[in-house]
Amino acid sequence: GDSVTQMEGPVTLSEEAFLTINCTYTATGYPSLFWYVQYPGEGLQLLLKATKADDKGSNKGFEATYRKETTSFHLEKGSVQVSDSAVYFCALTPGTGKLIFGQGTTLQVKP
Amino acid sequence: DTEVTQTPKHLVMGMTNKKSLKCEQHMGHRAMYWYKQKAKKPPELMFVYSYEKLSINESVPSRFSPECPNSSLLNLHLHALQPEDSALYLCASSQDPAGASRGEQFFGPGTRLTVL
Questions:
Q1: Phi, psi (5° rounding) for residue B88?
Q2: Across all residues in chain B, what is the average pLDDT?
Q3: Which tens digit of pLDDT belongs to each residue from B18-60?
Q4: Which residue of B has its CA nearest to A90?
Q5: Torsion-angle region of residue B31: left (phi > 0), alpha (psi -120 to 50) or beta?
Q6: For residue B1, is pLDDT > 80?
């Protein structure tokens, strides 16, 4: 079945460091891919998305490229801030109405 | 209006109580969802409504009873819950009907439920 695998956290970085959170997926067909962010005590917010191969999603300095050949959708940011501390979920939907999530990666950014 | 709202924000209930969670969206979305999220875990899908009809029930115990009175409103009725049902309950919506949607889901802030 369809699945998403994220790098295990927590990830601890200093402010202004470069961020990469790895995400790979297994799916039949052509899923849409998403990154969601969850700040402490809140719901999930859509961070970015990509709906077809080679699409690049971007938002608030975060980027991820849909790589079909490597079945990956890695999240990157050039310079993290303390306010980026949160849990990040990679997810896919194969078009059935279900969102399939990775296990989540906790990011802690220290000043 | 581009948000999903949920009430209440927090709920504490005993195992014999009956309570309801409420979710609203005014984006004209055709599908609405209930998720359960335990600490440090991803959300788990419970129910999906598409065009106000239940389209997916992920084998959820009958002590959870969903209801979709209209296209903007989704309720989750709770009865005889167990302490292990304590969790964050998230509502979401998507523009396209569930079976045809490859688009994003928009999430509400959640209801933090504690069952004593």
A1: -95, 125
A2: 93
A3: 999 999 998 999 999 999 999 989 999 999 999 999 999 999 9
A4: B42
A5: beta
A6: no
Strand B111-115 and strand B10-13: the pairing is parallel
Q: How far apart are CA A44 and CA B104, in angstroms?
A: 12
Q: Which amino acid is at A20?
A: T
Peptide bond into A40 cis (omega under 30): no
Angle at B1 between CA A48 and CA A64, to 5 degrees: 5
Q: Which of A42, A46, A89 sits opposite B104 (nearest CB)?
A: A46
Going from the C-alpha of B20 to that of each of A7, A87, B50, the distances in angstroms are 37, 28, 20
Secondary structure (DSSP) of A35-83: EEEE-TTS-EEEEEEE-STT-EEEETTEEEE-BTTTTB--EEESS--GG
**CB < 8 Å to B109, chain A:** 42-43
The pair of structure tokens assigned to A89 is 């979920």
E strands present in chain B = 4-7, 10-13, 18-25, 31-37, 44-50, 53-57, 64-70, 73-79, 87-94, 106-107, 111-115
B contacts of A103 (beta carbons < 8 Å) = 41-42
Q: SS3 for B99? A: helix
**Considering CB atoms only, which of A34, A93, A102 is closest to B101?**
A93
The one-character DSSP state at B9 is S
Within 10 A of B86 (CB to CB), how many other CB atoms are there?
18
